[in-house]
Design brief:
Pfam families: Pterin_4a. By secondary structure, the chain is α+β, with helices and mostly antiparallel strands. The chain has 3 helices and 4 strands; from the N terminus they run H-E-E-H-E-E-H. The chain has a single domain, classed as Transcriptional coactivator/pterin dehydratase (Gyrase A, domain 2), CATH 3.30.1360.20. The chain is globular.
Length: 89
């Protein structure tokens, strides 16, 4: 079940933004390999949770986009995964 706009606003972790039906955060790094390593760590967490984000690896950044396609928007699963990712950072 998707969250209401108010629920997303109150539950969205710091540093995350809402863009339509997704929540988005860009993590910054000192160099490319640190970002790649972080993306790999996130991929393992996502696989364990069976909830897979879009990860965009840049030169010194990793952009993460979360949504629940099967539900048609943002769910508790997205918020939970965002929090797990922030714990990893």
């Amino acid at each position: 079940m998707t969250l209401t706009d108010d629920e997303v606003d109150t539950q969205l972790p710091d540093e995350w933004d809402r863009q339509g039906d997704e929540i988005v955060r860009t993590y910054e790094f000192d160099d490319y390999l640190n970002g790649v390593s972080f993306a790999s760590d996130l991929a393992e967490i996502a696989d364990e949770e069976f909830h897979h984000p879009e990860l965009i690896i840049g030169f010194r950044s990793v952009e993460v986009r979360l949504t629940s396609h099967e539900a048609g928007g943002i769910t508790d699963d997205d918020i939970r995964l965002a929090e797990l990712f922030d714990d990893e950072y």
